[in-house]
Amino acid sequence: MTPSSTPAPPPLRLGQLGAASIAKNALIDASRSTGDSLVAVAARSPERGTAYALEHGFARSEDSYAALLASPDIEAVYIPLPNGLHGPWAERALLAGKHVLVEKPFASSAAEARRVLAVASRTGLVAAEAFHYALHPLLLRLRELLSAGAIGRVTGAEIICVIPAPPATDARWNTALAGGTIMDVGCYGLHAAAALGRYLGGPARVLSAVAEADPADPEMDRAMEITLGYPTGPAVRLRTAMNAREMEFSLRISGERGELFLPCFVLPHRDDRLILRTAAGESTEHLGTRSSYAYQLEAFAAAVRGVTPFPVTPGDTLEVMNLIDDAYRAAGMSPRPGSSL
Questions:
Q1: What single string gives the DSSP state of each residue in 176-213?
Q2: Of these residues, 13, 86, 104, 237, which one is catalytic?
Q3: Taking Cα atoms as reference points, which of 15, 183, 46 lies closest to residue 105?
Q4: Whole-angstrom distance, CA of residue 301 vs CA of residue 308
Q5: Which of 34, 94, 112, 288 is paired with 208 by a 20 to 30 Å CA distance?
């Protein structure tokens, strides 16, 4: 007798706040891979929302963010708004009974993140931070090799997260909306640095930070160099910038017996190589170019359905937000202000 198979869970019914360009990869294309349903989108103007829904395959648009959160047929909401609005709208979505997938960084500051996560804990809903890259097989394989001692004891690491400058009008240059390099590409590097703590004796801490400030705004970091320390390991260095000539998201980890190098760890669908160099020679593994955003949406759906917890934990989120705050203070800047709705 053939045992009965477990029915597949129904598609996740998703809403989206805002018409951000990142949603094309993070939600829209990912949902085509996972089979989840794009129920509704809301933008700052109803006209923009209608056009966006037609262009990207949402079943409908709503006239406002509040109307979308009140929709009974939406069970989870993706929030790709400007950084300063992540926390406030995540909190409102949770209070409206919706699970949330929040673009990184999760909030404007660690204090704001704690408030939102407290609401998630109280309501029993999923509040997930979208560090998509960490769910890709490339990063899972990296952890496997480090745990197996492929390069021996870790003796150092260098992380580079840089992109060309966004337009001057981009919200990422707006301090009031929690803009800045660390809040954008730099938080990927801090998340990766925090993850190295499991091989270096415990949590990372910011030892020093030097920022290149915007001449027009001394609180706006255009670039930053951060050194992180660990209880029993070496210092790790992060270089991040939003004014580079070219994009680079590389991770190099040195050990007593070799080196592991990921040329593009944040966007593995562009370059899925993991390069291992030891005295025995160099080898390259390809871990697959399926989008890390698709893995992320699958993991989020599994968490919403109660199958498995989301891999980026609330503890991970708070650790990174604390590192962000500490990096700003070490660089002589202020942690980003929260936004009011």
A1: GGT-STIIIIIHHHHHHHHHGGGGTTS--EEEEEEEEE
A2: 104
A3: 183
A4: 9
A5: 112
Per-residue pLDDT of the chain (341 residues; tens, 9 = 90+): 445 566 677 899 999 999 999 999 999 999 999 999 999 999 999 999 999 999 999 999 999 999 999 999 999 999 999 999 999 999 999 999 999 999 999 999 999 999 999 999 999 999 999 999 999 999 999 999 999 999 999 999 999 999 999 999 999 999 999 999 999 999 999 999 999 999 999 999 999 999 999 999 999 999 999 999 999 889 999 999 999 999 999 999 999 999 999 999 999 999 999 999 999 999 999 999 999 999 999 999 999 999 999 999 999 999 999 999 999 999 999 999 987 76
From CA 165, how far away is CA 304, in angstroms rounded? 36
Is the CB of residue 48 less than 8 Å from the CB of residue 19? yes
Whether a cis peptide bond, with omega within 30° of 0, leads into 166 is no
Q: Residue 98 catalytic?
A: no
Tokens of 243: 């004014």
Residue with tokens 């909306």: 177
In the block, which residue shows the tokens 């989870």? 76
